Every structure is written in structure tokens, then in C-alpha cells.
């Protein structure tokens, strides 16, 4: 456990620590599917500004909160002690486990408040959604048997950042889930998995040592690189398959150039810190893809 600051390391300010723990660079994985779900709703009915704000507060509260809780859980297990990627607060000793845990729980509290408001004004089923998000976020790396350590992280990311994020956003606006929302959620979930894969590919050695058996650890380095390419290709293929229903979704093809750099890095054998640009550019791909898909769905 890294409960204290490492020798020679300066503790970041409270704001800097919060920004590190929040992992703001990965926000496209949250914002892009919300944009897609809102676009589906906009093509089928009115979009309510208040509901949009509540959706963002709800989603960001759980996602940012989960980032802190993952930092806490991975840190106390020792999974982040020798990270090659961005600094983690507990693993680096930059913040105490208790402080990081409190940040995560406070953000969950904000999300729950937004969920309760939506439950009262839209549907009580949204309380179940809040509970599902809270349990899914905590048990990803928390508890005695976290599912993120048993190769279920990819399934979780696909479901929560793809299917649920898009479909729940559409439901909050329309109070129903059209088939188009389900179809549009699939490529977003695939790209979210691709983003996770770049992270897990980089961390294969340290995850293996810590007993964190991700899909990448199971597949091994070579097959994980192929897996990443298949996820990106499948996302484009599934989105383009929506063209008969919404021809303007062909716009997503314009996001293909953004995929070139991360694919070149991953397939070209980049390792360790050299994979960080692949992670960053996969975030940009998610953002560009989501913006173009949203535009195509709304037209």
C-alpha cells in the first residue's frame, strides 16, 4: 500500500490532486455517448434543457466519482505502485486513501441527488439506474472480488459507457427508448472498450504482477493489439450500418483519419509510456466520432 508520499516527491495542491484524480482527459468517453443519446431524442421529439443538465450532473458525478474510487481501490491493492501511465493519487502517495475515497463518495452523492430529482420529475425507474451505476462503479475495482480484476472490465465499459449511457440519455428526454438509440449505443460502447484497451495494453506487466487479470492480460500483447484494431473497425462498421435508417450517419467516416495515429502506435508495437499518445488520441477519436454520429442522427 502507498499511503504516504514517496521520498522526494512533492505533494500536489488540493486542486491539482483533484484534477489528477478526476482524469478529465478521459471525459470524451462520458460526453460523447450523452451527445449521441441526446441527438437520437432530438430527431424524435423535443429536448429539454433542464433534463440535459441533470443528465450531465448524474453522469459526471458517477464517472468522476468512480475514477476516484478506482484510484482508491487500485492504490490500496498495490496495482498502481509502478504505473507507466498518468499518476494515480494513492499509488503515488500524492494523497491519502481516505481523502481519495471521500472525494469519490462526495461525487457519488452529487450524482444521487440528480438521480432523485429525475426520478421524482421523470420516472422512479431512474432510482434503479442510480443504484446500478453506483454498484457498477464501486465493484469495478472495489470490494473483496472486483470484477475489473476478473476480465469483466470490457463488458462493463461497453454496457455503462455505451448501451446505458446512450439509451438512458434518450429515455430521460423522451421517456422511452427507440430502437435507434440501441443501435447508436453499440459503436460508442465499442470505442469505449478500445479506449480501455490502450490503457490495459500498456499496463499488462504491472497488472499481471498485481493480479489484475484484464482482457489484455488474458489475450497477451500481440492479440490485444489486434483486439484494439477490431474494436475500432467494428465501431465504424456498426455506425455505418445505421445509414439505411439515418443516411447522414455516413458522416462518421470523416472521423477515420483520427484513428490513424492510435492504430499505428498500437499495431506498430508501442509499449509503456509510448502508448500514452494512443490513449489520448483514442479519446479524440471518441469525441470526433461521437460529434459526427450525433450530427448525422439529428439531421
What would your notes on this structure say?
The chain has about 300 residues and is mainly α. About 70% of the residues lie in helices and about 0% in strands. The protein has one domain. It contains 13 helices and no strands. The chain is globular. The N and C termini lie far apart (about 50 Å).
What's a quick, concise take on this entry?
This protein has 299 residues and is mainly α.
Binned, the helix content reads over 70%
Query: How is the main sheet built?
Result: none
According to DSSP, the number of beta strands is 0
List the helices and strands in order: HHHHHHHHHHHHH
The radius of gyration computed from the alpha-carbon positions, rounded to a whole number of angstroms, is 19 Å
Oligomer class: single chain
Distance between the termini: 52 Å
Key traits:
single chain, 299 residues, mainly alpha
Layout of secondary structure:
Layout: H1 14-22, H2 28-42, H3 49-77, H4 89-92, H5 97-121, H6 125-141, H7 153-174, H8 179-202, H9 204-210, H10 215-219, H11 221-240, H12 256-267, H13 276-298
